[in-house]
Amino acid sequence: EAGVTQFPSHSVIEKGQTVTLRCDPISGHDNLYWYRRVMGKEIKFLLHFVKESKQDESGMPNNRFLAERTGGTYSTLKVQPAELEDSGVYFCASSHVGTAQRAEAFFGQGTRLTVV
Amino acid sequence: GENVGLHLPTLSVQEGDNSIINCAYSNSASDYFIWYKQESGKGPQFIIDIRSNMDKRQGQRVTVLLNKTVKHLSLQIAATQPGDSAVYFCAENTGGTGFQKLVFGTGTRLLVSP
To answer: Among A9, A51, A116, B95, which is disulfide-ready with A72 (CB 3.0 to 4.6 Å)?
Structure first.
């Protein structure tokens, strides 16, 4: 079974440009999450999709960030325009919708974003 | 890797020793906790979890202890191996049953010498 895949693995862009990160969750996982780790800080929650619907986007830092999940499959996270403080590693994770005691989230390898 | 340059607490042990990694969490209402391992260039990988109605849970070579009184988690790794070298994160789940809205700790770097 393929794991969570993210593309690109690295991206270097100039301040003011636009970048789009993509996440392909594990097939059949309705839950999709975005997290990020900016330098020197903890991994922080950004938002959560259930299928194509945004369940919780309380962690999105500002309106320069737009996440979509058309069709409830893959997701994109667009940053427009990018600022220096957006540099960091962006993780995507997916899990089953569960009533079980836990619905383990599987993480992708991350996209390292560098804004210069 | 992404953790280069971060001032993470570091635990250095010899191969075969037992390792104990500690974590303090913030939300007394959190009812589900997870330990993750992150190797260089990879995303966090689930190790073991524990619900708040338990104080101890064991896996293969790993044990998690939960002290709700002082909001403290620990991860014990028995007979530590060089392959255990990684950054370890505790996380508390604030998303309810079936959902994962995780609040991560800062992480601890484990270095295992042969």
So the answer is: A51
